Records
---
Amino acid sequence: MIRGVHLLDPLSRRGLSEPVDISIAEGRIAAIRPAGTCLDPEPGVDGSGMIALPGLVNAHFHSSGTFNRGLIGVLPLELFMLYELPPFDFGPFRPEIYRSQALLSGCRMLRSGITTVMDDLIVYPEADLEALEAVMGAYEELGLRATVAPYQPNKLEYDWYPHLRDLLPADVLARMNQEAPPSAEEILAMCRKFVERWHGKADGRLRCAVSCSAPQRSTDDYMVALHALAREHELAFNVHVYESKLQRVAANQLYGGSAVGHLRSLGVLDELSVVVHAVWVDEADLADLSEAGATVVHSPSGNLRCGSGMFPFRSARRAGVPVALCTDEATCEEQCSLWRVGQLAATLHTLDHPDHRAWPAPEEILEAMTLTGARALQLDDVGQLAAGNRADIALYALDSDTFVPLTNALNQLVYGEDGRSVRTVLVDGRVVVRDGRVTTLDETALRAEVADLIGEWMEALQPAAGWAQRLAPMFDAVYRRCAAEHVGVNRWVGDEGRWLAGAAWQEEWQASVRRARADGQEDA
């Protein structure tokens, strides 16, 4: 029982309902009635002076990036990923590292009101069952509702990355060939074992999903087979699409057209599809996404951190595309706070155009943080406070800075909350945060464990950083060349035309080719 708590009520003067009691039985909301009318004799949780909201849903996240918090500044996506996921000499890591990252980020999420997460887990250098076991065990212990997907492409970078092969030295090409990703059959066998072991565990709180990374990084037969596995078990199918302009250029070269259209032609774009980023989509892509019933996950923090451009929020909504929100990873949203992401989404898109009637409404943002995120995870009983739904509930103190003075509760949440008003969090009716502290584990001990492990992690970064530094000029040259190509849409706020017309990128490209050839001759 949660007694005497307020709910959001947009029709009331300050946006709050009269106090209510929320009855909980067997992990679900049994009833919501006016305060004092429930007959349950148990004292339950005192909700007076607080507002109850459904637990937030973080629709896309990489817990495996948690130890990279603060590691990388502002860089284009392709350079950003090179420093974060260098091609060689990085991993494999002990399962304890993945477990600690999931626990650390999971605690941050719970304390800020996130009760559900889609973890697109990147395991270095390739996904394995030991790491997945460690992460699922961490979420089981923590009490967070988690859907986990092993992020696994199966193509070499130079097979899809525009123009990259022209620049890579001979020794790098040779090593890439020697350390190729696992085959589609190997990945699928691992995924099947993972699903058999974990899907639906902890009374359905833990679920599995699949992730091909991105269409350009995966072979067609692999994506079709992976989607068939998703369809067999009704799993979310994660796919990064058009996160950057370079990826739009890559799709034009690989498919002679749209990556979204290619996914649809393969039969892998449907209501199970969780399309992450979708920054460089055009109107035809949005129509395909809408007709397929796919959900787009918007990452304003990640897009800003990597200068990827602005996702067309209003165009997507007008096309009928459901839009959820995510924190992505700690290198993008370092607090794991979906509220901070919501504030960005609510205000960033005022730059799209001057028609203020098309700017995101606070109701849309809150829906993207709850119900639409639940849809992406194939969950129909979370994201809303209603009888029969899972009792995933967060209580926010109305005497916190966010609400003093209290004028309009919804606006104050969407534009001003950062998670520090959270006092109590329940998942499946179990209290997992009390008085702002996680109850399911010893956070002091966890911080000590992280302090022991981070040295190992930072040491492992040294040789990888050397590779990244060597290859960065080549990746940067490709980025600049692709940035200068016409693709039919523009998602940058600045004057793209001046950049396209400039000759500097062409001179830099020719210099990069000359350096690559000289480097290749020396290596040979």
---
Amino acid sequence: MNDTGSLEDKPVSDSQFVLLSGSVLIIAACSLVYELLISSLSTYLLGSSVVHYSLTIGLFLFFMGVGAWMAQSIERNLVVFFIAIEVAIGAIGGVSALLLFAAYAWTEFYYPIMLLTIAAIGILVGMELPLLTRILEARSGLRKGISQVLTFDYLGALIASLLFPFLLLPYLGHLLTASAVGLVNLLVALIVAWSFRDYLRQWKSASLAGLLAAAVLLIASALVVNPASELFESALYEDPVIHTEQSRFQKLVLTNRGDDLRLYLDGNLQFSSIDEYRYHEVLVHLPMAFAKSQRRVLVIGGGDGLAARELLKYPTVESVTVVDLDSAVTNLARGQTQLKQLNNDSLSSPKVTVLNEDAWAWLAQQGDLYNVVIVDLPDPENEDVARLYSVAMYERIARRMAAGGVMITQATSPWFARRAFWSIGKTIEAVFEDVAPATVYVPSFGLWGFFVAANHPLDTATSRVFEGRFLNTATLVSVLTLPADLPKLPVRINHNHSLPIIEYYREGWGVLNNASEPGVGKGS
């Protein structure tokens, strides 16, 4: 037996063969987790999920190809190189989330650093699989070796695709997931090094040193996850962070300074307690004034409980159903002290039913009819949300409305995202007989837009306008009077098969937003 890591003098044993086959599965799972981490983290920080997932996956595959091409230059010491590559992947992948958070918080070079991180991990992963194939080939032949590597590679990818959204991200978050997966890579390298120790005699010191250095790095990164998270959040948000949580769907951050409580979802401001009443009074009391009955109300979104708070001010309201996808948001609204005070603990009222379901699928079912439907969803910045502003969505809402019912939806800023605003209106007009735009100035958001819709005339209120802090009979006229400098624009209807509203939305807000601050607006 030689000491250079060659497999020429002794074939792979049965136990080593099983170990390497299992390593392929684990390596593939870890690699896909790094892809998903970078994609989801970039989406959280910068929005545009389709763009960042497409970029990350495409670049990863390209650099894996580069790595596979580079692997052909390795002719001997296959096991040594495999272990070294595995250690390098663990070290780089394990600190990737920390690196990207820091790049976003303190530099203007997020994309270059993101590209370099993807390139490094992609090239190394691309080198791994050809090396493993050649190592296994010594035992089972080329055809069988390739088949086995690909089989375990695809199976590992499946496992990672299930673990990441349902276990890793919700329970560990980005930073700890990266460190944990990096340690898994190191564990694979350690086990393989032990199993092939006879091949590594002259490389023993270097192997142990590399493993030890990488392990120290990753353990240190895992230990600083909490202080690092606090440091990054404080750099991203102006006010002190009092709660942060990663759900299956989004990152929740609650900040507080004095009387100003703010909720951010994936970095986008949802409300400020200083002026949220302006938004929610229009969102709730405007449709209630035009509805022929106020008995049953449906709120789509609104998991913060603020719309429900306004609805419970009506003695005529018998039931409120809140359909919000993310249980983390509704649990926060029911459990966090300051937020409970702000929403008057509305989600715990016996009149309120909370359903943590996908509104799109829920509306397609047969069910109760509602007198008022309030749509309080994030802005249509990606495909998942944009379909909730489509003709098909409004048709589903219309089928769940009682005779004389009224619907209202928030419709982003008519000042910054004008074509998106008018596209929402034109889409609603394709379903409802009478549609009216409305606007209100909310200092935290700027000028904000809504559309009210019904299948009866909306020219006269059917009940007394609720006297709120902002909205009353006098201000109702101004809310329903569109400023002269916001004329109707020629736009396309938002259909599911085309979703032009995404283009309109990004076109408008893209000029305003930049990568140095959290988003401003309902999902902007």
---
Amino acid sequence: MPRYDLLLKGGTVIDGQRTPRFTGDVAIVEGKIAEIGSVPESDAKRVFDARDLIVAPGFIDLHTHFDSQIFWDPYCTMSGWHGVTSVVIGNCGFGFAPVKPEDRKRSMLTLERNEAVRASTMAAGMPWDWVTFPEYLDSIERIPKGVNVLSYMGIAPVMSWVMGRENAKGRPATRDEQRQMTALLGEAMDVGACGFSAQILGEHSVQRDYDGTPMITDVMAPDDLIAFAHVLKEKRRGFIQVLGADFELFEKVAEISGRPVIWNTLEFASDQHGNTYGYWKDILQWLADCNERGHRVFGHAVTCNIESQFSLDEWNLFDGIPSWRAVTLGSVSERIEKMNDPVLRGALRDDFDRISAKQKAHPHKPVAGAFFLAIKDTVIVKGHTPGTQALEGYTIGELATRDNKHPVDVMLEMSIAEGLKTVFQRTPPETEMDAMDEVINSPFVLPGLSDGGAHMKFLTTGRYPTDFIGRLVRDNGLMDLEQAHWRLSGYSAMAAGFTDRGFLRQGAPADVIVYDYDVLDSLPPERLHDFPADDWRLVQKSKGYRLTVVNGEVTFEDGECTGTTPGSLLRHGRSN
């Protein structure tokens, strides 16, 4: 009788621990790796020929927003299509627990603009069979999952629950409110939360509530953040995710909690919002200094190009510019009315010209809002009328020069004529490989990040593991595969408190990918109408992955989903 359920035979094994690669067999039984070495084919129920293929641990996706999507997409795609076997949800302080029943609609609206998933989609896709955070984790545990899930407690819903949304945005917590909020975090930690998260971007935040105001944690008092850090100090476990540029505060959080902090986001120029947190070399030095002082801080780097496709009916990635935010709040008809307003249109042109003049005066320095100037290089991808379809492939700048018009007017007039449905594409300059080399090989940098579940009408950064292996390792030789899989799996798992996975080791859960190194790549972008309430998203699937195995069961084979759902909720970083 066969001893093993699955035998991966004769592959090149890269174990996620920086062990030199070797040719061998990986035998799996009852969800775990039972043997690595030389195993007779007769010992297994199923033998998969892995010769000439890479056998490696599944990727660990540390930064996702699948808090709602997981209820209708068990595989958390795009991540699941790109070799990810474990995801961390609850990032940036966002989440859906605790939430009082009467606040559910407002909770979904809060993330509608920020994450570009319609509130109607969330309402149709989530069961809302919870109120508290422990009940939310129980709900996640009950549903079928094609990936493993680890969850932060987002701070925003905690503050809203205790203080009320308007108070939470308007003042610091009282001592009694702090005690109530930290008790809720303590309760969450006791039932398996991995820690807490917060976005601290201030009044000028680029990621905003549906009404255009900052998110709760953007404007929270530093003392309130510190109060949450004390909870992890008392629990002596967990870790923290923060987003923003208050480096002194974030290091203080690491110092007081005594726990690891994952800081977002290490950018080379700017992120999808045009935001930047400082020169990347300075950030690498800050990370080194923090760790030298005994404060465990990791930088989470965006490693794939941030290309975006968008239409102005649901576009929000210029929210850092007040004049642009003013015309992109509201329904399509309201947006069109505001875009036609001569005063508001003039403000857009003035901001464009002001930023352009500042950039010309300081060509070698970062200029706030400079990403707005990318309108000139934005390409018309898809028109919905014959006149616009004839212009597909042209840039806004080319048309502005041809017609002697301002670029802002060209984009808005074209889009308004098509009900804001015209599809545009922005492709930023590719990061210099010398800079990328230095960053991804830095001792305190983790690669990523996918933002899976967020910005999904504009971005496809969930392809980052495939891009990392294919473009950075194979095509540009920035590191060897041993180091790459350690960064993408083993090191990421260690930083995030996964205690039993991220590597191939006897006795470990069998989260494994098998892929063709020469073929691995992302497929072209496409729009899928596969979300509840007829919502859509922009995606890129992959090629080259032969098997994705989660807890010993195959979830994807040659790009096709098998329908199995062996994923686990990882309380305290492990499945049991």
